[in-house]
Amino acid sequence: MIKLALFDIDGILNVAPRFSTRYTQEFGVSMDTILEFFEGSFQKCLIGKADLREELEEVKDKWNFEGSVDELLNYWFKGEVNEIKEVREFIMGIKQTGVTTAAGTNQEKLRIEYLTKTLKLNEVFEEIYSSARIGIKKPDTKFFEFISEDLSVPYDQIIFWDDKQSNVDSAKSLGIHAYLFEGLDKMKEQFNNLKDG
Question: Each residue of 30-73: pLDDT tens digit?
Fold first, then answer.
């Protein structure tokens, strides 16, 4: 019996071009320059240990951005919103069956706030577990341990989808029914095969 359906957000419910790809094309900055930030100080932002506005203030000149940090954040966040309506409807349908729906996502605090407001995620998910909120990132198994404990749902009663194999493998190692996202039809099939088991 499945009691919790857990979803990654980016790559499943929200599918949009990456900020780094758009930015390098539009501002003529090298990918290495952008990745230095995302692989460096941004990692602390993802677990709530650094302030994104402060970190961007340090790099925006190097990034050839002439506006304010808030303008940069708006460019970033606005360009990374593209909700897949059919996936939203599927999740809402699961919720209506009485199964708890939750998001489990590696997200920085400001961006998850933006996505929650813009996509009305609180209507879709009963809980939103972001790495910034709990201080742990996938694929660390502690990420999934936290969610299981917080909702009092055993691992074998959780179904989870992610678009990264390492996160799927981590969840599976605990006994969670975890799947690599391969499209909506496949996701429906996987859920239907388990929901009554």
Answer: 999 999 999 999 999 999 999 999 999 999 999 999 999 999 99
User: For the whole prediction, is pTM greater than 0.70?
Assistant: yes
Closest CA to 2 of 183, 184, 176: 176
Residue 100 in tokens = 């708890």
Pairing of the two strands 127-130 and 177-180: unpaired
How does pLDDT run across 133-146, given as a tens digit for each residue? 999 999 999 999 99
| DSSP E strands, the chain | 4-7, 100-105, 127-130, 158-162, 177-180
Pairing of strands 4-7, 100-105: parallel
**If we measure between CA atoms, which residue out of 166, 22, 7, 181 comes closest to residue 94?**
7
19-27 helix and 31-39 helix, angle to the nearest 10 degrees: 140
